[in-house]
Structure formats: C-alpha cells, structure tokens
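Q: I have two molecules that I believe assemble together. Could you output structure tokens for the complex as a whole instead of separate predictions?
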Amino acid sequence: MSIAVLFGSRSFEHEISIVSAIAMKDIIKETLVYIFIDKHREFYYIPASKAKANFFSSGEYKKCEKLELKNGGFYKKSMFGQKKLEFDFLLNLVHGGDGEDGVLASLFEFFSIDFVGPRVEASVVSCNKYLTKAYAKNHNVNVIDYKHFAKNDTITIDEYPVIVKPIRLGSSIGVSIVKEQSELTYALDVAFEFDDEIIIEPFISNIKEYNLAGCKINNEFQFSIVEEPQKEEFLDFDKKYLDFNRTSKVQKADIPAHLEFELKQTFKKIYNNTFEGSLIRCDFFRIDEKIILNEINSIPGSMANYLFDNFNKILKDLSYSLPKKKMVNITYDYVNKIQSAKGKA
Amino acid sequence: MSIAVLFGSRSFEHEISIVSAIAMKDIIKETLVYIFIDKHREFYYIPASKAKANFFSSGEYKKCEKLELKNGGFYKKSMFGQKKLEFDFLLNLVHGGDGEDGVLASLFEFFSIDFVGPRVEASVVSCNKYLTKAYAKNHNVNVIDYKHFAKNDTITIDEYPVIVKPIRLGSSIGVSIVKEQSELTYALDVAFEFDDEIIIEPFISNIKEYNLAGCKINNEFQFSIVEEPQKEEFLDFDKKYLDFNRTSKVQKADIPAHLEFELKQTFKKIYNNTFEGSLIRCDFFRIDEKIILNEINSIPGSMANYLFDNFNKILKDLSYSLPKKKMVNITYDYVNKIQSAKGKA
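A: Yes, here they are, computed for all two components at once.
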C-alpha cells in the first residue's frame, strides 16, 4: 500500500508538521509518498530518502519536483503533458492552519482525493475553541466555563488565576496563565497577536488529565490506551511538541474500568458522526468525578501513534472506511420550468 | 470595476445558483466576469452575453474556455502558456453544497483570491442547522427547540405537528411538516435521503416572520429593510426559489422601531465577527415578543438585492473591506533546536 503524507503549509505549526511527517517513517510500514506544502502554498514531491528536517529549513526542497493539484489528484510535469502521482490514500499531517481549519480538507473534497483526516465541519468545530465548547455542550459533554472576547471588548476579570487563549490556534501558542491583574495586559497582547478573538477560562491547578485517541472503522470504535500525560503546571510549546517526535509507546494510565468506560463514552459523543474519516485525540480533565473536554486534536502530533499497539493496521483499516459523499443529482427541471413560463422553451 | 460571478457547482441548488447569477446582470452596474462550475467541478469562463439559463441546461457551456484554479487566480490556456483571468474580486454565488459549506471558501483562501462570501467557519456554522443552533445559543440568540437524530437512532415523537429537516441542506429540500404519527416514516425517509443527520422541531403555525440582510463595512453595519415575507403554511422549493430570480424591490415591513432595533441587534450578535466579508440574510421568527433565529442564509438568493436601495454600492464597498488573514511567520527554530540537540546541526 502507498500512502501520501501531506505536511508543512502556511501554519504556525509548519515545522512541527515536518517533525510529525518524518516520525511516520518509523511508524508506518508502507510505502510513503511525501508531499510538502511550503509557506507560499506550493506543493512539492519529496522522495522519502530526503525527508529530513534540515532539507526543509535550508530551502533545499525547492530542487524537488513541483506538483499541481487538480481534479482527481496531484500531477507532476512530465515530458509529454502531466503525470499523476500515485498513492492509495492521503494522510493529512498539516497541523494547525490549513490542515486543521478545514482548508485542505475542502481541497481534497473538491478535487476528489481520498484522505484520512478531519472533514471541513470537524475541522472548524475542533480548531475554534469557542465552537468546540458550543459543539460539546450541544452533545451534552462538559466543558470548562469561559468568557469569549473580541479585540476591542472591555475585559474585566473578577477572579484569578485565569488562562487566556486565542480561540483558533492549537497547541499552547499565544496561551498564558495569568495569576494576578498586573499580568493581564501582557497576556492579552500576546493572545491578540495571534487572533482577534480569545477565550478566558479559570485556571485550575492539579487537574487530572487523560488523553484518549481513536477512530471509527466500519461503525466500530477503535480506541488507544488512555494516557495520563506527565505535566508541569503548564506545558510550553517546546515540551508539548515532544509529542510530534514521539514514536515509543507510553504507559497506560492506571485508572478504574468505569473511568475508562466513561472516557470512551464521552469520546464517542464527540466523534459521532462529524469526525468520521479522522483519527483524533481528545484531551480530557477530571474534576470532582466529572469528565470535562479540554480539547479535540483533529490531527494529533505524530498521529498519537505512541498510544496504539497496532497503529499501522488501524491507519490502513481507517483508509478503507472513509465517509462517502452523498451523490448530488443535478437536474435542470427548475430552469426549464422558468424558461417555459417565460415562453422561451 | 470588474466582478467575477461564480456559480453552479455540485449542489442540490446548482440550477438556482444559475438563476441567481443571471439576475446579477440587472442588478450590478459593473463589468461581470462569469465563472461556471459544472457538476464535474470543472471551471468555465462564460462570456456575459451567453449567461442565459438554457446555455447551461443544454450543455452548450462546454464549448466555452476551461479555467484552472491555481495560486493567485483562475487561468485560461493561451497560445504561450497561461493567461490570468482579470477581475477585482469574486462574488461567490454558489448556493448550497460547495458554495455555502466552506469548500469553495477554502479554495479561495488557499489560492489567495479576494472574494465576497462567507469564510470557512461562517459557512460551516450556517449550513449545518445543528451547528447554527449551537452557535446561536452560545451568542445568546434564541432558537426553536429541537431534537437531533442520526440515521439509526430510535425516533419517537410525543407531540405533533413537527417539522423534519436534514441538518445540512439549505432551502426546503428534504423538509416535511408532519401532522401525525402516520406521516412520520415517510418524512424521515425523505429527510434521510439527503443527509445522515436530521433535526426535528415543533411546527408552530402563524409565526410572524422577518427577514433582514446586511453586512459590515469598515466596522459599520449596513442593513437592508426588514421584510415580512409573504407565506403560505410552508414555502415549497419552487415558491421559495422565486427569491433567486428576484430583482424588484419589496415593501418594508410595517413594524415598530423597537422591533426593528431588536432584529438588528440580534443580527449583529450573529454576524460578529465570524461572517465578515459576507452579505447574509437572517430569517427570524417572533413568538411571544421573543426574537428567534430560524436560519442564516450566508449566500442569500440573488444576494437579497431586492431588500437594498443601493445594492451595487454596498457590494463594492464590501469588496474594499474584506477580512485580511493574519500573517503567519514561518521559522525553523524548533527544527534547528532538535537538530542541534541531536548533534546534527
């Protein structure tokens, strides 16, 4: 089987996407066809042997063949016309902008390319923290309380500490913990640097955290182990991004069966049916016996491979179980009716 | 000024998009550059003189020049390479699938094409009735109560009449009013024909309905008149689609100033900031003095031109006030750090 791994693009997480993509070499036991999107949003075909981090940071990738995206696939220029790049399906590994906000999903949808990754709706719902909360609440899943603010709003905080987050970025980019009033202005400046809208949540320390990854294959859920992530008070960008480089297995969290069951039930409520076609990781909090959704990673770092025993098989099986679009039957009955009403038919 | 009018595409509303696009000839006093997307999702450049409904239904459009969408614009084949199709901005007039679900918005975003129309997030929020409700509730806007069901759910109804709607389609496609138990199975079959998820709402007759269109230009809202649509118990597809053909002005609803004010305030809550760059029509109900959002038309039929005195000016002004994307500064600091940690730098 051959799998196209798409990575890079115009995203704050551009370089960690590169790291995630390279990690796949050790994880996926299939032929990998690397497609890099550079910051100008040009597509390049990268031979697997060249997929090393400094090949991209140095700009050397520009010597590789450019690809054009058109109906049905990616095309290389060849001596006579164009040649289609062959692969069985595409794995979207573009983290953050373009990859997780629905833009690339739309391109694959429009140009009919089979892919593993969140569809447009799932992307929008998971990459905007405000919409994630609305979506989760609508599915009867608990979320942390929050206030939503736009750039020119008056922002007053009654109780500290709080956590300030740009609404659209993944990871910890632009996120600050604010312990007292005097730190607020700086934290707001940082967050508004990245987005015109933010959310502010109470910051609760010593929360129990649980991560669970999974997907739905032929109407059956396939779950990873539950991980209890090792954490400091707050994972900074560098620490958090070790995940993207991660290929060795982690320890299963030592939790009672009923808690594992509850986490899985909550995961299902979130996944169904919006996230079909994707393998996601949900990060949960547990406060006072309640399971609370913190965030949905619709393209988790290195695909959360380290949480699965059989990642390669799950990915392949998922690729055989991608959601099919409804057929749209286009007729011209209405136009013909108008024409005949006008006496022009 | 020259405006590209994009229409057609793989949508249940394909043909009414054609009707909407043709209506623009009488409405927009600028040079129109027509771009048709056929059901195979191929782009065609259509000379304005040929933009008549039966040109598309007959298949004659296939004789027109094909266009390729690439970074920066649409390109025609020319004798020596390719020639860019020139226009000042693009008006997205693809109703329903592709146009209003975020797919085409993503293409314009990715390939850097200035356009008037809903962005990806706004599209997803407005085209999925379930997400519209979640979004509205989160913005403290009232919605009609509802139950959400997926294809294999057990569906029981306690109180009739109800209205059954596929969650993702615009207009009245697949929608039924169900007055008693015996009619339910058929209505469900129809709705599930179009979508795997539906919502069921109580059907309330004799509701007051108000439509209001508008957009934000340089941080100021520009509103249409408020229309009180003439209605039967339930507008069927054909009647509803007269809007798409509509170019003559309608009468302003005879309502008190405080109600108009309230409708506008509610519109602002919905529009801000997600719908920037688009001209939308919100359809409201009024029940027991409460304003209730029924639906958001992110690309209303014939752009709701008939509700504005100065549609041409508003459209042009809006095109000068499109949302700008945040710059994404791509660095390779993290990759370089890993490299040097590995002793490879």
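A: One point stands out. Chain A is about 25% helix and 25% strand.
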